[in-house]
């Protein structure tokens, strides 16, 4: 073996080692009043992040294109679908679609060939995307009002609704508001309305901030690796109601739902925080305020008892009458600070390479 200088070894070590950025390891603070300062410090705009983001994303954000949609006229298009179809397949630039307030009764799909799309409503105004798709007509995951396959999608200030009627207690009535199947997606100040299967948080890394999700049974489901921050989970209806049905199927999958500084509210009592749709669901609630709507057992009993050993149901420093853990199912993990921190940073969703704040309207 030839002689290698110590300086060369040091050079190789430094440049071969992965770079761990501060925003990947800085946990969300326990004090809810510090969320915004944490967000501004860790999710800075493009101007402060050059050289740290995915190079393809940086190139896409350099010169964004803006499209306006107004049903009353005066915009570039009158429908959301027309605006999306104007984006070329193989798109490489950020396209910001600004929507005038109103109700857009459309079934919208952002296909895989159109990444870097932003759908924006005007802050403080109601911009509603609605459709009445049902599983009976389209199939469960294709029933959504908004379906996103593309990467690097952003939505802000939108109300996304499935207007199909509430199914009667004890009957099936899947009707999705949204299905997110693209990686690196962010949702800011969005509201999702449905009943059974409201939000299909399906695949990829996702970030939800200041959002509202309403439903009855399994109203957040899929196998996403997702961080929900300062969001409200609201249960409606009667009968069996469950918030999260995570679809993790093995211990090797790097995914799960983390609800941090959220609020669990609703009508009645007896809602479950989650259930084992598949064998290895991973769901944690941290610093979350739980009203009395939550069933004292917390999590639905596993139909297959072997899942008791493979589920990961975590609760960390939650508050409110629904957070009392004396009657929780035995397989609830009362995680400590070290375990919780892995869910409390942007590293959980690999956010330092792609997550940006929403653009101004």
UniProtKB/TrEMBL annotation:
What pathway does the annotation place this protein in? Glycan metabolism; pectin degradation; 2-dehydro-3-deoxy-D-gluconate from pectin: step 1/5
Any one GO MF term held by the record is: pectinesterase activity
Q: What is its EC number?
A: 3.1.1.11
Keyword field: Aspartyl esterase, Cell wall, Hydrolase, Secreted, Signal
Q: Which InterPro entries match?
A: Pectin_lyas_fold, Pectin_lyase_fold/virulence, Pectinesterase_cat
Pectinesterase catalytic domain location = 67-351
List the subcellular locations: Secreted, Cell wall
Q: Which Pfam families match?
A: Pectinesterase
Which residues belong to the signal peptide in this entry?
1-22
Predominantly, its location class is: secreted
One example of a Gene Ontology biological process annotation: cell wall modification
- Give the UniProt family note: Belongs to the pectinesterase family.
Its name, as the record gives it, is pectinesterase
Q: Which organism is it from?
A: Thlaspi arvense
């Amino acid at each position: 073996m030839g002689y290698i200088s110590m300086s060369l070894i040091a050079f190789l070590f430094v440049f071969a080692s992965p770079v761990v950025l501060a925003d990947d390891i800085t946990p969300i603070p326990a004090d809810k009043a510090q969320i915004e300062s944490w967000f501004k410090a860790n999710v800075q705009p493009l101007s402060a992040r050059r050289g740290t983001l995915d190079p393809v994303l940086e190139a896409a954000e350099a010169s964004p294109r803006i499209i306006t949609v107004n049903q009353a006229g005066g915009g570039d298009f009158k429908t959301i679908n027309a605006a999306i179809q104007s984006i070329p397949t193989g798109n490489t630039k950020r396209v910001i679609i600004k929507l005038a307030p109103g109700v857009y009764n459309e079934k919208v799909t952002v296909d895989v060939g159109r990444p870097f799309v932003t759908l924006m409503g005007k802050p403080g105004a109601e911009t509603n995307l609605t459709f009445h798709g049902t599983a009976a007509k389209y199939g469960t995951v294709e029933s959504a009002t908004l379906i996103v396959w593309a990467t690097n999608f952003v939505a802000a200030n939108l109300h996304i609704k499935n207007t199909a009627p509430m199914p009667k207690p004890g009957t099936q009535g899947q009707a999705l508001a949204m299905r997110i199947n693209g990686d690196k997606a962010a949702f800011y100040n969005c509201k999702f309305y449905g009943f059974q299967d409201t939000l299909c948080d399906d695949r990829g890394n996702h970030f939800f901030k200041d959002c509202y999700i309403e439903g009855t049974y399994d109203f957040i489901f899929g196998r996403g690796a997702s961080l929900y921050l300062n969001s409200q989970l609201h249960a409606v209806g009667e009968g069996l109601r469950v918030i999260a049905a995570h679809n993790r199927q093995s211990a090797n999958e790097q995914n799960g739902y983390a609800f941090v500084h959220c609020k669990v509210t609703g009508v009645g009592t007896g809602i479950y925080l989650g259930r084992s749709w598949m064998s290895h669901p991973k769901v944690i609630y941290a610093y979350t305020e739980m009203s009395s709507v939550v069933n004292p057992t917390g999590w639905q009993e596993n139909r297959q008892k072997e899942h008791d050993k493979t589920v990961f149901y975590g609760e960390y420093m939650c508050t409110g009458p629904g957070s009392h853990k004396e009657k929780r199912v035995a397989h609830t993990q009362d995680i400590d600070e070290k375990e919780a921190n892995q869910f409390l940073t942007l590293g959980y969703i690999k956010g330092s390479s792609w997550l940006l704040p929403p653009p101004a309207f």
